[in-house]
Design goal:
Strand 9 (112-120) and strand 10 form a beta hairpin. The protein is mainly beta and 901 residues long. The chain has 4 helices and 67 strands. The chain starts with a helix and ends with a helix. It is elongated. 36% of the residues are buried.
Length: 901
């Protein structure tokens, strides 16, 4: 039976009991002089209020700044500079073998800052803690913003406005304390609901309202922040849809100077912008004329009638159709005017013509003392360029001839001379006196001043009225006149009108609807031609838009961590003025799915919306909000959308109580806290689920995500170290807030042991014991005494005695190595010592081994010889152990003397 394995087993067992040492990580602090303590308050900024926060930690750090444990309970004293702000217990105990001692911090309603101090055997550490928000300063690079939904207002209306502060790079500042903004404005035209707006502590803006009086004009509003010397102003134009003045129109513009002629005189009211509008009250009218006889006298009689002419309530105009004897009035710019108290005057002019031309049976001019010419005919249509919705209006159409100057001179093909009216005939150059400053002939006047004796006095392509030689109607069995509208929803023809015999024009009546926009009124008359006129149906008070107005900028939304954000919804008319609602309007805003109402008699509403769909990332911060009217007969034309850039008001902040984590302590603590962009704690209304990740799981691992509970700004999470020394990045994110990251480091709390060999040649003989020295140093090259050295080698290759040994006071130990075979052998050395990280190294030695003659392991030796060998080995181990107690220097000198011998 071979004895190799029993021998080795017995030897290993004996040596194990005699020399093996198991290191411990706990330190006896009394034996350590080079350590420190670390006080951590994490998070270091808390919300105010009476509460107990378990956020205090005390660590014992090695000289390398890594947490270590104590082998005994250690009492630590604590104190607070101001217990009324943050109170801590007077004493806590760092228990044996625990990584840290924790303690509660109790806060009150008082805000402020204080310092917490920890004392361990004269080693002192401290940390500042902030409670609440007592900051009284603002950033230096401030810009004051005054935010208006529109720069136009209607009289007697109201609209919101906001003020806020932002930095030069566009970040809106959360007020650290109450910030007062003074307001200045023109009190004659409008007023604000307050002369001071206060951005309350913790808020981002303040809002107020401005109300316009019943006067039109241009006003302003100015915001002033006195502490920083900032101010900003914006102008507001105030207009009115109430009638402010009169407008008079005469149709047609050319009337024959004959007996019993009728004019269409239409008087309407317009607002401050010149748009037609309806009057809320009756407006009496007084007419006058520049020609007292025969027109002025008739107008005076009309104005003095019992039923005085007036624009009645809820109407926008009055049509006066009166007959006048104009046979002796051949003139230009005949003025007719109208006046009304409070609305001023309005005037218009018309012209009379001297020659009346009627259509013959062939709808061509008949003989009127002058030669017939082949005139083209057409229909002229006249009306107002703007008409209010839901109103009655009038249009005038007139039979007209088109003047062609080429027919005024020369001869007919038969040689007969063409004759025209002498007052329309241009005089020859020879008759002109260049030195005369007086104009003696009609044709030398301007086209506006020339007397229209006949069509020949007109310029090329100008129109001249012709009179119908029969009554023409727009209804009946034989329809002569056809008046149509291009859009019956905008304007409907109520009465097409008629042209009486010996008259050149007729009047049609139309009714406008609720729909607004351009509409064309066309008139065709059989045998004459077709004409048209385009007008626009408007409703300046009609709601044209429902606008989303963000209080923090026209394209910015600031929302809190729960997805809530503030928004105004304001109704605007066609002039972008706040629209007073006649009925309550309901609107759906998506994707927030919020149903918002603007109440009757209001112009706007303030609402707080919420959306779970808002995600924050560097690549996408834009959202689109859509507005859609809801309800019976909802005006879908009010549908709209607005683009906004989202800005969160809070972020997830990570903190770790120590800068370096002990790689060998598996349980470590991290804290996530919800704070605003200035670092102040934020209390969420709902639980916040945060996602926490590690960039290197091989260094630190995050086992689970945590929830910040509603009502608290922070929570703890566990960090598991793997024993590996290195660096990693821990990141935290949550929906609706900015995420942050923190750089973490793991390290060993102990100095790394280093192993060196001495006296070991690069090649050793086989089967011959060789003694050599092992040295153990720390990272600072200082010798480590009492270190346990364990040497491991393949038992078939080498025999090492002893395989477990301790270093002496000089940090060295002597071992014996016997190579059993070649060509080389390898062995591993592990060094351990209290307070140090394990050291490990491996060595390879060449062996000078001749060819074996026989195998010594196969010798059949008596059993008692084996035990004698074992006893001898043990004696060698005792001798080696005695050598370990000598100094490192003496051992080296003795080693050199032995080599010389």
């Amino acid at each position: 039976m071979k004895t190799k394995k029993p021998i080795l087993f017995l030897l290993a067992t004996i040596l194990l009991f005699s020399g093996t040492f198991s290191p411990v990580s706990a330190q006896n602090l009394e034996a350590l002089s080079d350590y420190s303590i670390k006080l951590a308050i994490s998070p270091s900024h808390l919300e105010s209020g009476v509460s107990e926060h378990h956020i205090g930690y005390v660590f014992v750090l090695s000289k390398f700044g890594v947490p270590i444990t104590s082998s005994n309970d250690v009492p630590i004293s604590l104190s607070s500079d101001d217990p009324s702000i943050a109170y801590v217990p007077n004493k806590i105990v760092l228990k044996a073998n625990e990584e840290f001692a924790s303690f509660p911090v109790t806060t009150s309603e008082k805000s402020g800052s204080t310092t917490i101090t920890a004392n361990l055997d004269g080693k002192i550490t401290f940390q500042k803690i902030d409670v609440g928000t007592d900051e009284t300063y603002l950033p230096d690079d401030l810009i004051l913003e005054l935010n208006l939904p529109t720069n136009n207002m209607h009289v007697n209306s109201k609209m919101p406005f906001t003020v806020f502060l932002k930095t030069s790079d566009g970040v809106i500042v959360r007020a650290p304390n109450d910030v007062d903004i003074l307001l200045d404005y023109d009190g004659l035209l409008a007023t604000t609901n307050s002369q001071i707006l206060t951005i309350n502590s913790g808020d981002y803006y303040a809002w107020g309202t401005i109300s316009a009086y019943d006067k039109v004009g241009n006003t302003f509003i100015r915001a002033i922040h006195e502490d920083s010397g900032l101010d900003v102003a914006k102008s507001i134009q105030i207009s009115s849809t109430l009638p402010t003045s009169l407008q008079l129109s005469i149709f047609p513009k050319l009337i024959p100077a004959e007996f019993d002629r009728t004019l269409n005189i239409f008087v309407s009211v317009v607002d401050s912008d010149g748009n037609p509008t309806k009057t809320p009250n009756d407006i009496p009218l007084d007419f006058f004329s520049s020609e007292q006889y025969p027109i002025g006298e008739n107008l005076d009689k009309i104005s003095k009638q019992v039923e005085k002419p007036m624009i009645k309530k809820d109407q926008f105009g009055y049509l006066l159709q009166q007959k006048y004897s104009l046979q002796n009035l051949l003139a230009n710019d005949i003025l007719i005017g109208v006046s009304s108290e409070g609305f001023g005057t309005a005037t218009d002019t018309f012209r009379t013509i001297g020659e009346s031309i009627e259509m013959d049976q062939r709808n061509r001019p008949s003989d009127n003392n002058f030669d017939d010419k082949n005139y083209d005919t057409t229909v002229s249509v006249f009306g107002l360029s703007k008409i209010p919705s839901n109103a009655t209006a009038f249009f005038t159409y007139q039979l007209s001839m088109i003047e062609e100057d080429g027919d005024d001179d020369g001869f007919r093909p038969d040689g007969k001379e063409i004759r025209i009216h002498p007052e329309c005939l241009q005089e020859s150059d020879e008759s002109n006196d260049e030195d005369s400053e007086e104009i003696t002939h009609n044709t030398e006047l301007s086209s506006e001043d020339i007397i229209l004796y006949s069509i020949d006095c007109l310029e090329e392509d100008e129109l001249y009225p012709i009179q119908s030689n029969e009554n023409q109607y727009s209804d009946g069995f034989v329809q002569k006149i056809n008046v149509i509208s291009s859009d019956d929803q905008k304007a409907t023809i109520v009465d097409g009108g008629k042209i009486l015999s010996s008259y050149s024009y007729g009047t049609s009546t139309i009714s406008t609807g609720q729909k607004t926009g351009p509409v064309k009124i066309s008139t065709s008359i059989n045998g004459v031609g077709t004409g048209s006129f385009t007008t626009e149906v408007i409703n300046t008070l009609e709601q044209k838009e429902v606008r989303l107005f963000s209080p923090t900028g026209f394209d910015n939304i600031i929302f809190d961590r729960d997805g809530f954000f503030d928004m105004f919804l304001i109704a605007l008319d066609a002039k972008e003025r706040p629209k007073i609602m006649k009925e309550t309007g309901k609107y759906l805003i998506t994707p927030t799915n919020g149903l918002v109402e603007i109440k009757k008699d209001d112009t706007f509403t303030f609402t707080q919306l919420r959306s779970d769909s808002f995600n924050i990332s560097e690549s996408e911060t834009k959202i689109v909000l859509n507005v859609e009217p809801i309800g019976e007969n909802a005006n879908l034309n009010l549908q709209g959308s607005a683009n906004f850039i989202t800005h969160p008001t809070s972020q997830i902040q990570i903190s770790i109580p120590v800068e370096k984590m002990n790689a060998d302590h598996q349980e470590n603590i991290g804290i996530v806290q919800l704070v605003d962009l200035q670092g102040n704690p934020v209390i969420p209304k709902f639980d916040i689920k945060s996602k926490i990740t590690s960039s290197k799981d091989s260094v630190v691992r995050i086992l689970e995500n945590v929830m910040i509970p509603a009502g608290s700004s922070y929570t703890k999470f566990n960090i598991e170290t793997t024993g590996s020394v290195g660096n990693a990045v821990i990141s935290a994110s949550a929906k609706g807030v900015n995420g942050t990251s923190i750089y973490v480091t793991t390290a060993s709390s102990q100095s790394q042991l280093k192993i060196f060999t001495g006296g070991l040649d690069s090649e050793i003989p086989v089967d011959k014991p060789i003694e050599f020295k092992l040295f153990v140093d720390d990272e600072n090259a200082d010798s480590v005494s009492g270190a346990s050295i364990k040497i491991s080698a393949n038992s078939e290759d080498a025999l090492i005695t002893p395989n477990v040994v301790r270093t002496g006071s000089d940090g060295s130990a002597i071992v014996s190595l016997t190579a059993l075979k070649g060509p080389d052998i390898s062995f591993e050395i592990i060094a351990t010592a209290e307070g140090y990280a394990e050291g490990k190294d491996s060595f390879t030695v060449n062996v000078d081994a001749p060819e074996p003659v026989f195998d010594s392991i196969d010798l059949d030796l008596p059993e008692w010889i084996i035990y004698i060998v074992i006893g001898g080995i043990l004696m060698v181990g005792v001798v080696v152990f005695m050598f370990l107690r000598k100094s490192k220097t003496n051992l080296e000198e003795e080693w050199e003397e032995e080599e010389e011998l």
